[in-house]
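Ticket #4471: structure export looks truncated?
Reporter: QA, pipeline team
Priority: medium

Steps to reproduce: submit the single chain below to the structure queue and open the exported record.
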Amino acid sequence: MPPFIHATAEVSAEATIGDDTRIWNHSKVREGATIGSECNIGQNVYIDFAVSVGSRVKIQNNVSIYHGVTIESGVFIGPHVCFCNDRIPRAITPDGHLKSAADWHVSPITVGYGASIGARSVIVPGVTIGRFAMIGAGSVVSRSVPDYALVYGNPARIQGYVCECGQKLQSVELVDEQLTGYCPTCDRTLTLFAQELASSH
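Actual output as written to the record:
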């Protein structure tokens, strides 16, 4: 099925929208943005130029996604999340002139496959959020998040690890440089092949 775009949404003719994607009222998608198939874009969402969104992504109301962001497939973004793109924001140059596009230095953000970002979180420029990571509501993510990590707070810090189903892993331990944890919901043990997960904990 072709995408559904609400009558009040503003979607650039130069944006690419996948099949079965729904874009709801008062949202804006700018030129060069790419949104995959089967996405749900809530009301009053802003997707800046050249932003990349994968398939089966859920973006809740009032989310702002600025230039330089890449969101992989299967990601959940809660309401009022803001993705920033400039680590040193100024409206004017040192001599007092209004900054132009040439004066901005964008620091990219990547959100990995299956990750979830809780409501009202702020994602600081230049970070990568790993696959199936989970960001608690109201967090300020100022450094990169490993795969499967559960982080929250200001600044967000690792508070554990989660399964692909979203439940917090139990019995997390490092064995032979492999981090493992047990999910009671799925009744299975996940092995996370990354030494940096343990060193970040």
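Status: closed, not a bug. The export was complete when the record was re-opened. Leaving a note from the reviewer for reference: The radius of gyration is 18 Å.
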